Amino acid sequence: MSTEKQHNGSGGVVGEILAAEGKRGRGKGLRRALVTLVILAAAAVAVYARFGGESTGTPRYVTRAVEQDDITVTVTATGNLQPTTQVVVGSELSGTVKAVEADYNDRVEVGQILVRLDTTKLAAQILQSQASLTSAEAKVRLARATMGETAQALARLREAVRLSAAEAVSAKDLDAAAAAAERAEAEYQVAVAAVAQAEATLQLYRADLAKTEIRSPVNGIVLSRSVEPGQTVAASLQAPVLFTLAGDLAAMELHVDVDEADVGKVHKGQQATFVVDAHPERRYPAEIAEVRFGAKTTSGVVTYETLLTVDNADLSLRPGMTATAEIVVETVSGALLVPNAALRFTPKKEGVERGDKGGSMLGKLMPRPPRPNRTKEVGGAAKRQQRVWVLEDGLVRPVAVKVGQSDGTRTQILEGALSPGQEVITQEEGGS
Questions:
Q1: Domain containing 242: what range?
Q2: pTM metric for this prediction
Q3: How many domains does one find in the chain?
């Protein structure tokens, strides 16, 4: 009796131990299940935060409509305004400035005196030349008298030889008389030449005297003056600059530098407009008068100087002003146009679904298989071809186009599956 109870007691202890172990194992399983569920829930929240809608990163696209409109193609160039006629007035003579008769912005006429030089030295030289001329003329008269006297003496000897049959006069005397007559004639010619030289010297000094009054060679306006009364003018190797004159400022020239990439489009007779900083609200008309063949290279950039004629009847433009010109090189009517931003746009991911398509949580957690990359079809396009992007069936799709002229903001489409009013993408906002 006592043995059986002892056995049953032992079995009960073991059962209790086994029961406790069983409960402990079920607890560990529950804990493992709970941890797994928490991890899955966190993953689902993260995925939803990543793909859950527009507010969490879905890209949004800015679009603009394709237009059909006229387009004006222009070439932009900068340069400076210059007078049609500009003359630098200098002095051929050295001397002291006695008076200045013109100032800045004065209107001058042809022949008007601008500067007077001191004439004291030239006046003395003219008096000296006049005296030399008088002396030379007197020597001419003396030489003429001597020449006549010797000629008569020679004539008498020759007559005596004829009458006396060469017995009254010796040959030696006759030769001496002939030589004297020839010397007298030569001295006369020397005296005549001395008179011509004296006259030339006098004329030279008189011309210099006239040049002491420096006159305007053109009708125009004084742009600059670089001389003052009392100043010494030294004309040695080159004439010193006294004034800069401009012709009629009612007609001016605009000299601009056209880039080598654009010079082939620019021709004589094309119309243009330009602006200057002094009057930024006003556009001035101009016309191309000349495209020069000579090239200028500045910092590796090759340009060609182009001249435009400008009407400045109101004198609002001044020489030296910097101007920015737009030259009209072509006008296209009824062109199919897209904004330039559409040609520059490239999506971060091609074939992306639009954010406003929505979709279930399950669909976002289990996305569909990737669609074929349609942009590969564009890879064989010609080099001149580009592409724009459109939204089709909620997806971003490229459209191959061939471009033409551009006005800087819009570009002509020559070929491509686009139509007026169709939306093209210009910008992507949001997304990753």
A1: 90-114+218-246
A2: 0.62
A3: 5
